[in-house]
Amino acid sequence: MGLREAEQVVHARYEALGDRVQYRPPDSLDLASLAARAAALPGRVAVVEALWDGDTFHDWFVLLVAVLDDPAGEGHLATVHHRAGGPPPGTRAAEAGRALADHLGVPFHFASPDVPDDEAPRWRTT
Q: What angle do CA 106, 30, 65 make, to 5 degrees?
């Protein structure tokens, strides 16, 4: 089965069983929620970063991550999808990410806020 046929099957199942599907609510982007997620991570936050990602179901969306030092790594903070009638996900992610970075006293990095680009340079590579 090809991708197009698989998408049609999934769409038909949602139409038939949509009232039984549990949808995950969107990640909250308020400062208190983001700060709590950052505080729960296993390391010190060095930078808050926004990156584009996408798939065939959601189209383009933005991931907000905390890049960690000691131990090095990163932690997921939120996924920002397009919402009908709302600002683009890049705008929403940039506003939330900047607010969290200011709150934590760390830099904010978003290499391509206006144009989806999943190959934009990451903070550790710039």
A: 45
